[in-house]
Write a structure and sequence with these properties.
Elements (H helix, E strand, L loop, with lengths): L4 E6 L4 E3 L7 E7 L2 E7 L2 E8 L4 E2 L1 H6 L6 E4 L3 E7 H10 L2 H22 L10 H29 L3 E10 L5 E12 L3 E3 L1 H11 L2 H26 L7 E6 L7 H14 L6 E6 L1 H5 L1 H12 L4 E7 L6 H6 L4 E4 L1 H6 L4 H16 L3 E4 L5 H9 L4 E2 L10 H9 L5
Parallel strand pairs: 10-12, 12-13, 13-14, 14-15, 15-16, 16-17
Antiparallel strand pairs: 1-8, 2-7, 3-6, 3-8, 4-5, 4-7, 9-10, 9-17, 10-11
Helix pairs in contact: 6-7, 6-14
Bound molecules: ligand C2E and calcium ion (2 copies).
One calcium ion binds next to β14.
């Protein structure tokens, strides 16, 4: 795929584009200043000076019309180039009302130079409200592009890391697997919580690329931990690695082929790979979800439904989709001691999952009594700070080499 975002440098006086030319790229000013002007019978009229963070040339792309003004670098400048597809694809994919609004705003803005060209000084400038609406849309778009750039760098730098949290067999107390959890240390902002960046990655679509990275890295690390496990527990069942998969990753069926090749090239036994999927996918488009999950299942891997009990959980998911395991959300586990209803609910979910021959993983175990209660309910596995927090691979290897049990 060609690079869709790259830098372009301009010398003072250099023309970026001229009025009337066809437009293929839009630009974001990184450094310097770009003068935007139109030709009037009375001569050149400068209509704007655009500096850092401002976007140029997007309107002719969106309106699919020639440039309505000329852009020249006033000083030495650096621009981020946005290819047509990068700008238009998300707009085409946006919901129809959003698309219409973008089109309207652009049409109105493109009119502005014409009022000036016709010398109609009585025409209103863009009304303040309209300007404000435009600024908001533009700021949002710029913020997205900026985040996307930061995340791309996070993957390449790499500022991303996977931590692993042990998942314990509640009967034997032995390690049964580990969940890979993404960690991002931003060079300036420091540690960014997944609660903050995962939703942004989902919104921008970057989660697809980050998810590929997590799967690839998680499987590679798994082989190292598996090796240590086989030495420490020679006759125990090998652990599984759980990797989180966003609904966005399963949106395009072609992405499942990408996951297939990552899995096949990893050399990991598919029976040791568990993908954790939250229920939002099943809620938004059950038919698509069924196809996507069946396709994943063909790889011979295990599927877990994550955060079960939050949101829109429906028991019918358990039936309709090919899940092997169910993760009971932390919220229920936390409330078990305080609230008899939560305890009963966990007991009931556990009983039902056992009947359906699903493995159950209880999340967020922080206390001994929670461990004991859940084990008593027949939950197979547990995960939580009481046993171990998510930590780097080296830590997990230490735990394994010391033959730690809980
Ligand atoms: P999750 O999949 O439900 O992951 C479990 C979260 O619970 C983790 O939060 C973990 O640190 C936390 N946790 C585990 N045990 C305890 C406990 O005893 N007490 C408390 N208070 N928390 C516990 P984390 O690492 O902050 O991740 C948050 C969420 O971000 C994850 O929730 C998951 O939805 C998402 N996420 C993380 N990594 C990835 C990834 O690689 N891909 C995708 N798509 N999502 C990810
Ligand atoms: Ca999870
Ligand atoms: Ca969860």
């Amino acid at each position: 795929m060609p690079e869709q975002i790259y830098a372009r440098y301009l010398k003072p006086g250099e023309v970026l584009f001229r009025e009337g030319e066809a437009g293929d790229d839009a630009y974001i000013v990184e450094k310097g200043e770009i003068e935007i002007s139109i030709d009037l019978p009375t001569g050149k009229k400068v209509i704007a000076e655009l500096g850092k963070g401002e976007i140029i040339g997007e309107m002719s792309l969106i309106a699919d019309a020639p440039r309505s003004a000329t852009a020249i670098a006033s000083v030495e400048s650096e621009l981020l180039v946005l290819k047509r597809d990068r700008l238009l694809k998300p707009i085409e994919a946006a919901d129809p009302i959003m698309r219409l609004m973008i089109q309207m705003i652009v049409d109105r803005l493109r009119d502005a130079p014409r009022w000036m060209r016709e010398g109609d000084t009585t025409s209103p400038e863009m009304s303040k409200a309209r300007q404000k609406a435009f600024d908001e849309v533009r700021d949002l778009a710029l913020r997205r592009i900026q985040i996307e750039g930061e995340m791309r760098q996070a993957i390449e730098a790499p500022e991303l890391e996977l931590h692993y949290q042990p998942i314990i067999d509640l009967k034997s107390g032995i390690l049964a697997g580990y969940e890979a959890l993404m960690r991002w240390t931003h060079p300036e902002r420091g540690f960014v919580s997944p609660g903050e960046f995962i939703p942004l990655a989902e919104e921008t679509g970057m989660i697809v690329e980050m998810g590929r990275w997590a799967l690839e890295t998680g499987l590679r690390d798994h082989l190292v931990m598996l090796d240590a496990f086989k030495k420490a527990f020679p006759d125990k069942k090998p652990p599984f690695v759980s990797v989180n998969v966003s609904g966005r990753q399963l949106f395009e069926l072609s992405e499942i082929d990408v996951m297939r090749s990552i899995i096949e090239n990893s050399g990991v036994d598919p029976q040791q790979i568990k993908l954790e999927i939250t229920e939002s996918l099943m809620v938004h488009d059950a038919d698509h979800a069924a196809v996507a999950l069946d396709k994943l299942k063909e790889l011979g891997i295990l599927l877990a439904i994550d955060d079960f009990g939050t949101g829109y959980s429906s028991l019918s998911y358990l039936h309709r989709f090919p899940f092997d395991a169910l993760k009971i959300d932390r919220a229920f586990v936390v409330n078990m001691a305080k609230d008899e209803a939560s305890k009963k609910l966990v007991h009931a979910i556990a009983g039902m999952a056992i009947d359906l021959e699903l493995d159950i993983v209880a999340e967020g175990i922080e206390e001994q009594h929670e461990f004991d209660t859940l084990a008593g309910f027949g939950c197979h596995y547990g995960q939580g700070f009481f046993m171990a927090r998510p930590s780097p691979i080296s830590n997990n290897i230490d735990l394994i080499e010391n033959a730690t049990t809980w």
